[in-house]
Structure formats: C-alpha cells, structure tokens
Design goal:
mainly alpha, two-stranded parallel ribbon, 4 strands
Length: 384
C-alpha cells in the first residue's frame, strides 16, 4: 500500500453513524435507570458506563495487538476504504492469498475493525458526557473542563490509533497508544468520583494524612512507569526473551544490551541503524520490566497494608492486594507458559484496573495535616 492510500476518509461519516448506533444502547440504559435521579447521579452513571466500555476497549486493544491484528486493515479509519471487511473482501482476499499468514487476513481484519467500532462508540459517549455536563453546569458543581479534557484526549487517542496503523506498529507509537488508553481510564474515573461527591446525599471525601497521600501518589507514579515498561515489552515482542523464573536464561544477570533495547525511536524489530534488533536488547527490555515489577509489587502490598487501617479505604486496600497478586500470577504465566493469550490480556486488564483503583483513591481523598489527623485519632480513642 502506498503512502497516499494510508488515510482514506471516505468511510468516516458511516463509521461515526455506527458509533452513534453503538452508543444508543448504553445511553438508553442510563436514561431508564436515572430519569428521575439528580443531574449529578445521572452524569455519574453515564461516566461509569463509559468507563466500563473504555476498560473493555483497552482489553480489546490488547487482544488486537496480541493476535497480530493491528494491521488487519492497513489503512485508516476504514478497511481498504470500506466501513467493514465485507466491503473490502476482494482486497483482503488478495492480500491473504499473497501472504496466508501475513498481517492481513479476514479474521484479523474483523478484529481490527471491531476495535475501531468500539473506540468510535466510546468517543460518542464521551461527546455526550461533555454535552450533558455543559447543559447541567448550573446544577452540578463538577467543572466542565473535566469532560472537555476527556474529549480532547480521546481525539488524541484516535490520532495515535491512526499512527499505530500507518506507521506499521512503530513500538513507541503503540506504547504511547496503550498509555493513552490508561490516561483515558484515569480521567473517567476522576470524573466518576467527582460526580459521586457532588450528589446531594453522596459520600464525603476521605481524609488522608499528608504523607500517606504523598506516598499514594508515588505508588501511582510507579505503576505508570511499570505500565510503560510493560507496554515496551509487549510492543517489542520481548516477553519470551526470558522463559524461566526467577532467573533469565539460567542466569541472575543475563547478557543484555540496554542502549539498543531502550532506543525509543526505531521501527519494529529493528535498531536505529535499520538492522535486526539483537537478542540481548530484547533481554534487557524484558528484564528491566521484571526487576521493576518487584519494586511495584512491594509498593502495592505496603500501600494496601497502610490503607487497610484508614476508615473508608479498606475496600481500596483489598482491591490493591488482589490486583497485586493478580499481576504477579498473570505476569508469571506469561513467562512460564510461554505467553498464552488469556494471561497476556489478563495482565493488561490488571494494569488498567490498578489505574482505576488508584485514581479513585486519589480523587476520593484529600490531604490533612498529619499532626491534626493524629490528634483527632487520639481523641476518638479516648472517647471510647
């Protein structure tokens, strides 16, 4: 496919119409469930539904990548200029006949387009959320800038989705696309909490000691770094560079080439010079992610223990504990079972869930002076 045909905007209108159709179901459900509720409750429910579908979108994006379906339709936003693989059947058949196991096959084309359909539906829901927040701005204390920023970000995600295809799975672009999906989850989760706190009879923000909240932010940052490293492993197909655990290739410190492995701007499977990437570079990518995982796992377990004793945070603590164990189990499965599809998708899902849980904890809490917090705690103990 030549450069001029990488973007074919002919099916844009029909894809947008399909996105509206996909969004109608969730919108109807939200309206039926909340037609007599307060505006804040209605917006909260709409945000949670959008968050749920965005989580599904992230999982399906991982499934698309892991089944090598990212180039199932090698143009954007349609498939060979059509809105579905049905209209592109002749082109797909020709590509499949030329390369039966290649990037373009009928199953891969459908996987790729279903991912785009779901993304379009999520985009429509975010547009509706922005519009409804604007209409209800006098009745809801949540700033309009939250849904507006989410709308801008989903447009950025669409651009990265296009570049993922047109730049032929460029590792840096694919990793940024994954991180962008996580940012979208964080934005929606923050909005959902804000609408919850804005409800007339909604819960109050949970007070956290200033230092504990700072540590919570640090753990959140560590999770983001680990997601970026995990995305770099996946997009470079470096999972199987180490097939044993806890060692790698039978060694505690295998042969690694860090500079080549972490050269960010290069094509898939190539180094900066255009030669095939060396195996020690893939080993470095994998092993750095594994070493960082130990740090993040300990940080999550420590934070779960600290939050367990905070009133209103026990659910968050339990979720962090379960997700830490989930990530450990799914990450180990990827190595020792040689990257099964279910475990790989589950690992991405666990990372996305961690972003949602930690963002919810940060959005639903506020910092208080540690000395004041301790004095209030002592007073409550003496009054018993």
């Amino acid at each position: 496919m030549d450069t001029q045909s990488l973007y074919d905007l002919a099916p844009v209108a029909r894809l947008m119409l399909l996105g509206v159709v996909i969004a109608l179901g969730p919108l109807a459900w939200v309206w039926l469930r909340s037609r007599h509720a307060s505006p804040a409750h209605r917006l909260r429910l709409l945000t949670l539904v959008t968050l749920f579908l965005t989580f599904d979108l992230v999982l399906f994006g991982a499934f698309t990548r892991l089944t090598d379906s990212g180039l199932g339709c090698p143009d954007w936003p349609g498939c060979y200029g059509s809105v579905s693989p049905v209209g592109a059947s002749a082109s797909i058949a020709a590509a499949q006949e030329a390369m039966p196991t290649g990037p373009v096959t009928f199953p891969k084309a459908w996987i790729e387009m279903i991912h785009r359909y779901l993304a379009t539906g999520v985009g429509v829901l975010i547009m509706v959320l922005m519009a409804v927040t604007w209409v209800e701005r006098r009745h809801v204390t949540v700033s309009f800038w939250w849904p507006f920023l989410t709308f801008v970000w989903v447009c950025v995600q669409g651009a990265f989705g296009a570049l993922t295809v047109t730049m032929k799975l460029f590792p840096a672009i694919v990793t940024l696309h994954l991180l962008g999906g996580m940012v979208l989850l964080a934005l929606l989760r923050a909005q959902a909490v804000a609408y919850t706190l804005a409800e007339p009879r909604g819960p109050m923000s949970v007070p956290l000691g200033g230092n504990l909240r700072k540590w919570l932010w640090l753990v959140f940052a560590l999770v983001w770094v680990q997601i970026a490293l995990g995305g770099w492993v996946s997009t470079n197909y470096a999972v199987l560079a180490c097939r044993d655990f806890p060692t790698c290739q039978g060694s505690w410190w295998p042969s690694m080439h860090f500079r080549e492995g972490f050269t960010l701007w290069r094509e898939l499977g190539m180094n900066r010079s255009g030669d095939a990437i060396a195996f020690p570079a893939l080993t470095a990518i994998h092993y750095v992610h594994r070493l960082a995982a130990y740090v993040v796992l300990l940080a999550l377990l420590w934070m779960a223990r600290r939050l367990w004793s905070v009133p209103g945070m026990r659910g968050t603590a339990g979720a962090l504990l379960l997700l830490a164990l989930w990530q450990l189990a799914s990450g180990l499965s990827n190595v020792v079972l040689e990257w099964p599809l279910v475990a790989a998708v589950a690992h991405t899902g666990g990372a996305a869930a961690l972003v949602i849980v930690l963002m919810g904890a940060l959005s639903g809490s506020h910092a208080v002076n540690d000395r004041f917090h301790m004095s209030q705690f002592n007073i409550s103990k003496l009054s018993r």
